[in-house]
Specification:
Blueprint lengths: L1 H38 L1 H22 L2 H6 L4 H20 L6 H27 L5 H28 L8 H13 L18 H29 L4 H23 L7 H22 L3 H12 L2 H15 L5 H30 L1 H28 L1 H9 L5
Helix pairs in contact: 1-2, 1-5, 1-6, 1-7, 2-5, 2-13, 4-5, 4-7, 5-13, 6-9, 6-12, 8-9, 8-10, 8-13, 8-14, 9-11, 9-12, 10-11, 10-12, 10-14, 12-13, 13-14
């Protein structure tokens, strides 16, 4: 009975969440088609980057008391605001004189969308029993990866039907549909306007994942083009990544409740696996078989680590702080992804795509090691132990 009740609750929530997520997974590709083909791909890439920068702004707003007071409102108002900003972005993409304003709307959209994602997650934690959260977070990670897998096909169909100019309208329509489907609007913040404290290691772990996945996304097409002289294989590798994530998430959903490893340790082990896979891609991704196998292997850990991060967040923070906590989690991922994009833009002309990818793996690995060792360092204070060991003894 409990399982059936939880499944119904998740299914109802998932309908509203999908109406919000599907167009957003289409958005980066849609910007490339609608703006890149008419206003230039450099402008399109800048607009896509502005979304990530807007998401990073969530960290500033939710980290200060004044910002939290300003954002105390009902969840429906947030989604109506997202609809308005997305509509302006769509208009700016269609009117040549307004295209530069699209950057401003993208910044605002990234900020609001980050808060909207946190609000949706809080709504899910509010309707599911505590013991069912990790399992449904796992299945939700699978659902999200499935959306990302099929989004390019949806865009391709729209382009084939000459509906390209209307692709950017979809996020605005979805943001309107979401509050209509969620009859009880999720509250973004509780009554108190105190900043969210704690969970810094989760933000660092999320940033490390952003570095790894961002490094893969920006480098896989250049690597495929340079090694195989077949740029299209980059798209195949991305599809294998999503397929691996779907499979890994489905397996993790079955096993998560039976694992005896602490969630923090579990997250660090999976992140270490991701970083190792990225390093192997940089060193040994020299054939079609190796690139495909590495992409699939890396993908098998993405949905599980996303599920574990979400579950750890729900357990670390009070429920009234879940909107802010989840929004900050996703924003910290964007910090890592922006780092990878910037590193590739700045260093790949000198180092090459593979060496830059290896650098991303090294930076992410350093962050993971720091997360794992800092608690031990704080407990044992090695500096004090060394001082005590070499201090002159008194006779």
């Amino acid at each position: 009975m409990q399982v059936s009740s939880s499944l119904r609750a998740y299914a109802k929530w998932s309908v509203a969440a999908t109406s919000f997520r599907l167009p957003l997974s289409i958005l980066p590709i849609a910007i490339e088609y609608t703006i890149g083909t008419t206003g230039g791909f450099r402008l399109a890439s800048t607009i896509i980057g502005a979304f990530s920068v807007g998401e990073i702004g969530v960290l500033l707003i939710t980290g200060h008391q004044a910002g939290r007071r300003l954002l105390q409102s009902r969840g429906h108002l947030l989604f109506w605001a997202i609809a308005g900003v997305d509509a302006m972005l769509a208009i700016a993409s269609l009117v040549p004189a307004m295209r530069l304003l699209a950057i401003v709307f993208a910044l605002a959209g990234g900020l609001l969308i980050g808060l909207g994602a946190g609000s949706l997650r809080r709504a899910l934690t509010a309707i599911l029993p505590r013991e069912d959260l990790e399992r449904y977070f796992s299945w939700d990670a699978v659902a999200l990866e499935t959306l990302w897998l099929f989004s390019p096909a949806i865009v391709a169909l729209a382009v084939a039907l000459s509906l390209t100019p209307w692709l950017l309208i979809l996020p605005a329509l979805s943001a309107i549909a979401t509050p209509l489907l969620l009859r009880r609007p999720p509250a973004i913040y509780g009554a108190e306007a105190k900043p969210v404290r704690g969970g810094r290691w989760l933000l660092a772990a999320s940033a490390a994942e952003g570095i790894i996945e961002g490094g893969f996304f920006v480098a896989i097409v250049p690597i495929a083009s340079g090694v195989l002289h077949l740029a299209v294989f980059g798209s195949i590798a991305l599809a294998l990544l999503s397929a691996g994530s779907i499979a890994g998430g489905a397996i993790y959903a079955k096993l998560a409740r039976h694992l005896r490893i602490q969630t923090r340790t579990r997250i660090l082990l999976m992140l270490a696996g991701l970083a190792t896979s990225l390093a192997v891609l940089a060193i040994a991704g020299t054939s079609m078989l190796s690139l495909g196998a590495i992409s699939l292997a890396l993908g098998t850990l993405i949905a599980p680590v996303n599920s574990a991060r979400a579950y750890s967040t729900s357990m670390t923070f009070r429920q009234q702080d879940h909107s802010s906590a989840f929004a900050r989690l996703y924003a910290s991922y964007s910090v890592g992804a922006v780092f990878s994009s910037a590193a590739y833009a700045a260093l790949s002309p000198m180092l090459g795509a593979r060496a830059t990818t290896g650098l991303d793996a090294g930076v992410a690995g350093t962050v993971i090691i720091a997360i794992g060792t800092l608690p031990w360092i704080r407990r044992h204070n090695p500096a004090a132990m060394l001082r005590a060991a070499f201090a002159p003894s008194r006779v």
